[in-house]
Design brief:
The complex is a heterodimer.
Chain A: H1 2-6, H2 8-28, E1 38-40, H3 42-50, H4 55-62, E2 63-65, H5 80-113
Antiparallel strand pairs in A: 1-2
Chain B: H1 9-32, E1 37-38, E2 48-57, E3 62-72, E4 78-81, E5 93-96, H2 101-133
Antiparallel strand pairs in B: 1-5, 2-3, 4-5
Helix pairs in contact in B: 1-2
The chains are: A mainly alpha, B alpha+beta.
Chain lengths: ~120, ~140
């Protein structure tokens, strides 16, 4: 029901939300020795979700380890610049998706009220 | 650490911030003890350093940070000849704490920056969540 209501945007919002958590984890672990930065491949995750895969399975399928541009001695693969850019890109994406859903809700409300 | 409920983004940021605070506190302790003098090599202050560990929550896939342990550096105390010092031994030597002030300052700046990063993450996540809550209003 919710899928048909919000179309691709409902699925996209879930992927964005999961990615927000992963990127926050990367930023939080910027100084932890041996931590491997992770990210989700947005397209893979979204395709998997649209093809009816469950939330967790779709995310697990799309989760990848990041390849560092400059590997560090302690085995940590977090590069703050990369993570911060990805984080802000994701935050903007989340807000955009949210506004699409918002306008869908407004359209439906208007149709229901018969204005 | 035992957790009953799955970790959320606020737990991640909160724990990362407290880990950075521990790091900042140990740098402050080291800086405070820089130049402190002891009567023997064993009694001299040795710098402390926290070791971070990733705390992975499998159910949500989120990873936070915790302080695994706090280690003491095994750097040797610096011997100084100062016969007039009240703590000087029979050879007239005292031992100075082996604190690298520049390194501690850098450490402190880095932990402050990372603390700020987590605040930024927290603010972004909070405003996005509030926007989601207000959906349809």
């Amino acid at each position: 029901m919710a899928e048909s209501l919000f179309g691709i945007h409902g699925a996209a919002l879930e992927v964005r939300s999961h990615r927000l958590g992963l990127l926050s984890s990367n930023i939080a672990n910027a100084a932890t020795p041996g931590y491997k930065a992770r990210d989700v491949d947005f397209r893979t995750a979204l395709d998997a979700k649209l093809n009816g895969m469950g939330g967790d399975a779709a995310m697990a399928k799309a989760e990848k380890y990041r390849t560092p541009l400059m590997p560090s001695m302690d085995g940590n693969t977090v590069e703050l610049a990369t993570e911060q850019v990805a984080f802000s890109e994701n935050a903007v994406g989340y807000a955009t998706t949210l506004s699409f859903i918002q306008s869908r809700v407004e359209t439906l409300t208007r149709a229901l009220k018969g204005e | 650490m035992m957790m009953s409920s799955p970790m959320n983004i606020f737990d991640v940021a909160g724990r990362a911030m407290s880990a950075q605070l521990v790091r900042m506190n140990s740098s402050a302790s080291n800086l405070a003890n820089a130049g402190s003098i002891a009567g023997s090599a064993e009694a001299a202050y040795r710098p402390v350093k926290p070791v971070f560990r990733t705390e992975l929550d499998r159910s949500s896939g989120l990873a936070s940070v915790s302080v695994d342990r706090i280690t003491r550096s095994d750097a040797a105390a610096i011997r100084q000849h100062d016969p007039d010092h009240p703590l000087a031994d029979e050879n007239g030597d005292v031992w100075v704490a082996p604190v690298d002030e520049t390194q501690e300052m850098v450490e402190m700046m880095e932990s402050a920056r990372q603390y700020q990063n987590m605040i930024e993450v927290l603010q972004t996540a909070k405003s996005l969540m509030l926007d989601t809550m207000r959906l349809g209003k």
